[in-house]
Amino acid sequence: MEDGAVLVADGRIQTIAPASQLDLPAKVNCIDATGLHLMPGFIDLQLNGAIGLDFTSEPESIWAVADYLPRTGVTSFLPTIISSPLTTVSAAQEIITSSSPKGFQGATPLGLHIEGPFLHPDKKGAHNPAYLQLPTVEKVADWTPENGVRLVTLAPELDGALEIIHLLTERSVVVSAGHSTATFDQATAGFEAGIRYGTHLFNAMPPLHHREPGLAGALLADERTTIGLIVDGEHVHPDLVKLVWQMVGNGRLNLVTDAMAALGMPSGSYWLGDFEVIVDDTTARLTNGTLAGSLLTLDTAVRNLITFTGCTLSEALPAVTSTPANLLGLPHKGRIAPNCDADLVLLTDDLQVHTTFVGGRIVYQKE
Does residue 18 fall inside a structural domain? Predict the structure, then answer.
């Protein structure tokens, strides 16, 4: 709708109509978006930190990073806590379920993504092996959306994992497979138990093999799953991104950043949990060379997906809007429709973020 207009009130979208046909109230604040493209706000399901701040070592930094994210088009996100003492998870739960700071106007934290500590040691990636452990019911006793936990990444092949997958799924926590050595059959057993997501496809899992497709093959083949992918050109080769796109399309693909504390900062030394990370212009790596999160922003991920696959903007957008919203069971997020949250972003013709709205309020505007 080239001459479309969206009427927003009380933080929600009220009406969508051609501008010439919209009956506006007597007092309304009109924003002229001529030459810009109105899109749903972006949702990032995996973010470790930004602007020098790391959620795992400083859970209280969630609000400061949330204030930064709208400049990247992100209007809601899941702060990610990597493998750490369970007391760290509890501290993060307390922070995310508390009221936002007075006057806060930034991206909305939708709950935590707990990535670990129930991971396979052989696929630990940048996680501290000292914290890795087997899952038990007692360890996840208060992991619910009401207590701030939305998404949990675990290795489905671990002893006791299937019981925990059942339990968390029954509580409406989304369970993801990742940092795993699972075979195809073990992964499928995890899907039967309730897994519906795959954490950063190909990374921290066995390579795809023609006789043993493994976790990667199982995720690609099973239409019940949504697939997280880091599209920075470093974690996954651009041509493999294109192949994944051709296989699963925009209904199952979810772009994530997996960005860490160095996002928005110059090259140098930063932290991811307990580990020092060396950052250059393109990558973040542990001192042993292991990739440790990314420097990717979600708007850049969208542009990369279009470049790598040749898809259109409208085809790419669900991967950062409605697809993650649907996975989390949030029908009022990730779309422009009446009664949906007025989380919106205006993009320029070259797909740069111009203005971001959260709940109908401008929280970022390019100078």
Answer: no
In the chain, count H helices and then E strands: 9, 20
Contacts of 300 (CB under 8 A, 6+ apart): 72, 232
Residue 293 resides in a domain: yes
pLDDT per residue as tens digits for the range 221-238: 999 999 999 999 999 999
CATH code at position 218 = 3.20.20.140
Domain extent for 166: 42-333
CB–CB of 346/38 below 8 Å? yes
Buried b (16+ CB within 10 A) or exposed e, 123-154: bbbbbbeebbeebeeebbeebbbebbbbbbbb
258 is catalytic: yes
Q: Write down the mean pLDDT value for the chain.
A: 95
**What global pTM score does this model have?**
0.97
- The reply to whether 345 falls in a domain is no
H or E stretch at 4:
strand 4-9
Judged on CB neighbours under 10 Å (0-12, 13-18, 19+), 350 is exposed
- Contact 328/8 with Cβ under 8 angstroms? no
By the 8 A CB rule, do 321 and 331 touch? no
DSSP state of 99: P
C-alpha span between 347 and 306 (Å, rounded): 15
pLDDT tier for residue 18 given thresholds of 50, 70 and 90: confident
Whether residue 194 lies inside any domain: the answer is yes
Please say whether the beta carbons of 273 and 84 come within 8 A.
yes
| Residue 78 near residue 113, CB atoms below 8 Å | yes
Give the per-residue pLDDT at 1: 57
Domain count, the chain: 1
The active-site residue out of 54, 232, 258, 343 is 258
